[in-house]
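Input/output pair, single chain:
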Amino acid sequence: MLQSLVSDLRNKMMGVSLYGVVTDIHRDESSSNVVFSLRLQDISGAIWARLHFSKFWSLKRLSHGHMVFISGLTCIMKEKRLEVLWHENNTGASLVNLSIMPTIMNSSCLHRQTLLSDIFTKSCSTYICEVRIDQVDLCYIDTRYSHLHCGQFIIKKHDGLFECSFCHDSSISHLEVANSFYLRITLTDERAKVGAWCTGQTAMELLQISPDEFNNLSEDEQLMYSSSLENLAFKVALVNSRSKAHGSHDHRSTSLEEDTIQWEITCALKRD
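Output:
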């Protein structure tokens, strides 16, 4: 398996592996198969990868700014532009979202811990910070349905049917749907404050409650719940979710509200 930078890639190379940041991703709706186009950027450049899945998107949640490792790539020239192909069932094919792995929090070989004040000046894909929850009066907690296959929110269409906002699956059964949080929150350390958002398991870790448990609270209890979070300490992983998309698509797949907030919390661990 060949570990490469984008700038090393040449036509007809096979078995290639890349690390990079996702700067754009969308489903290829012109294909009858399950194919996604992903733009991957590393320190040397960027390239489009076409991801071919056997049945459906099976990588759970992946979004702008996430750091991934992908192996089993094949390089081809298409319309005088180099791109890479990935087939889920090929031998040696894997795609790992490093930004959502809990092990990234304590792995100094992957990322060093930093202060919130440094995330605007340092050039990293994922920042690990020790923080506390602040300004709970500005905290926003919402529960929504998400698609189990890809972890993204579901849109209710005019005809009453549901469609995944990311993979555009419009035949979603109740077995493929789960309650999930959408959370906006303020993080602080000794030098700075940062507004951030998150969903899924990360939001559950920060809120210390499940979406179903939260929905079972009375309306007054839900409104007061954020006050219980004041000054709770966490180690978090942050990524820049406003990575500039390139190409003709810009699918902000989880929520329009995220466009106003730059930082996504991809992992969180509660501290004593």
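The CA atoms of residues 40 and 47 lie 5 Å apart. Confidence is low (pLDDT under 50) at residues 245-256.
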